[in-house]
């Protein structure tokens, strides 16, 4: 049966899609963060967390449950999102200094964790899409340098490609440990991965 591998892939996609619908998440991507959290334990009760590239809001939904009523979730995206209970949303460019200042004000100071599921508008040209993904990854790292507490944690979605090792190196200069992970909820054919970085040590002196 030549179509069976495709059928299995579609079945896997449908499982997370249907589960998201039944559990009230806005997108199946919620399970990527849940699986990352289950493996790496990045978010704690009471944490203040920034969600970069938050639209449509599924990661923010997960984060609200993880941090609990004593925590805080601040979401950022260029696109507007439908309001979510217990989420502070800022519309704008995460690399903009004014947006970063608004983030600090909303958080009340440095934050415990930053997560980024941000991805470029894909063109189908892998090299081009990879380069755009690396730009977003570096922007997320810059936000971490601006906002993250010592010892804080970071998750960044990236597309595989030749520039990824350099980005991983830059993350390793500021965090320990750093892992590359692809959760089960990522589509099998997807070339996305996640940089999972713990224990923020501060901006390297060469970049300060």
Largest sheet: 7 strands, mixed
| Low-pLDDT residue intervals, each spanning 5 or more residues | 1-8
Number of helices: 6
Instruction: Find the CATH superfamily.
Output: Vaccinia Virus protein VP39
Question: Could you say what the CATH topology is called?
Answer: Rossmann fold
- Report the CATH C-level class: Alpha Beta
Helix content, binned percent: 25-40%
Number of domains: 1
Count of beta strands: 7
Helix and strand element order:
HHEHEEHEHEHEE
Return the CATH architecture.
Answer: 3-Layer(aba) Sandwich
Q: Provide mean pLDDT, rounded.
A: 86
**How large a portion of the residues is in β-strands, by DSSP E?**
15-25%
> What radius of gyration results from the CA coordinates?
17 Å
Neighbour order of strands in the largest sheet: 3-2-1-4-5-7-6
Distance between the termini: 58 Å
The shape, in one word, is globular
Q: How would you sum up this structure, described in words?
A:
It is a single chain. By secondary structure, this protein is of the alpha/beta class. The chain is 40% helix and 21% strand. The protein has helices at residues 4-23, 30-40, 58-67, 97-107, 126-147, 164-172, and strands spanning 48-52, 72-77, 87-91, 111-116, 148-159, 178-181, 192-197.
């Amino acid at each position: 049966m030549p179509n069976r591998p495709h059928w299995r892939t579609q079945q896997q996609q449908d499982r997370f899609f249907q589960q998201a619908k039944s559990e009230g998440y806005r997108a199946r991507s919620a399970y990527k963060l849940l699986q990352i959290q289950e493996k790496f334990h990045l978010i704690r009760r009471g944490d203040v967390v920034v969600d970069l590239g938050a639209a449509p809001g599924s990661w923010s939904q997960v984060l609200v449950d993880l941090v609990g009523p004593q925590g805080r979730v601040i979401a950022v995206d260029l696109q507007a999102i439908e309001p979510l209970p217990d989420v502070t949303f800022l519309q704008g460019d995460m690399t903009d200094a004014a947006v970063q200042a608004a983030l600090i004000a909303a958080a009340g100071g440095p934050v415990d964790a930053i997560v980024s599921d941000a991805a470029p508008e894909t063109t189908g040209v892998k090299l081009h899409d990879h380069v755009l993904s690396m730009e977003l990854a570096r922007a997320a790292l810059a936000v971490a340098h601006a906002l993250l507490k010592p010892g804080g944690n970071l998750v960044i979605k990236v597309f595989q490609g030749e520039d990824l090792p350099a980005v991983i190196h830059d993350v390793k200069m500021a965090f320990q440990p750093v892992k590359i992970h692809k959760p089960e909820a990522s589509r099998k054919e997807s070339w996305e991965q996640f940089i999972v970085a713990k224990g923020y040590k501060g901006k390297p002196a060469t970049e300060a």
